[in-house]
Protein 1
Amino acid sequence: MQQILALLFVIASVVYFIFSIKVIQQTHKGVLERLGKFVRVVEPGVVFIIPFIDRLKRRNITERIADVEPQDIITKDNLNARVDLQEYFKVKEDNESIKYSYYNVDDFKVQIIALAQTTARNVIGDMKFIDVNNQRNELNTKIADIMKQEIKNWGVDIVRVELKEITPPEDVQATMNKVIKAQN
């Protein structure tokens, strides 16, 4: 009987030890919570936790891309331009930013996409179509700068914003093609 209890104790100890070991990859950092309360930010490597009491969340700190759904935006000269953009972002590597990315924003990737859509709508809506088409680099920078200001407390950095495509209405496109042909 004592041998069975000793064997069960050894098995339970081994299982407990196995569940207490967690590994954080080099591309991630972790947040350790004990009974639902923040304890500390955890660096990459092997981490020991107390099973069933501690919870380890992992956060990717590499640069990632968010593809923003194309949307129709009315420019200052009342043209509907179909705008397709991408944004590149990453969670900042400092411990405070890792903590903010969990506790200051619910789902930062979803919210960054929504923010990109509304920011693009506001910025492009204040410009004429010809300016939107000719000033893409300035437009990318302006949208990124506004977004950086809005998300400064999320622990996330906007690396850059890229306008992939700006498509005018078909009749405007046809007129623009006729003008270019006439100039050539």
Note: The chain has a mean pLDDT of 89.
Protein 2
Amino acid sequence: STNFAEGLPYAVITTLSVVMMADLGLANAEVTFWTSLLAMPWTFKALWSPWVRDTRFWIWLMQVALAVCLGGVALSLYIEDWFTWCLIALGVGAFASATYDIACDGFYMKALTKEDQSFFVGIRSTAYRLSMIFASGLLTTIVGLIARNNGGDLTMAWTLVMAGVAALMFLFGWVHYTLLP
């Protein structure tokens, strides 16, 4: 579950947001430029990784932060300057997600023996990839279904999906706070 929760915000911020912004009427050049900048925190996460020490705490904190950021995306879609606020929420979420990646990987390094790390590497990778499929495949399908059933209202569809992802990240945060050793 930690690795599913690791891949989900990455896919939402770097892939699903591209589809959302295009659906909401932004030009392809503008969408491409801004969403490419959103990927920068994952490139530079090694710069702040030495300060992410208590990995269980950081896992929980970043999942809650991601829930707040993705909730902010959902709320921003109905305001006049939605694009600016959406980018701010996605940008902060990108830093939180990259930090979560550091914490999640560090947690497994500390929690598992070398043998267990070898055993779980495929499981962790599969969970991460499934979250990518979930975000880019299932969530876009859900957006389409919601929009079709509501007179083509893409803003409402994206708001509901982003709010749902925010709730899912909050649920992951609660479960991991409760269950991670």
Note: The chain is about 85% helix and 0% strand.
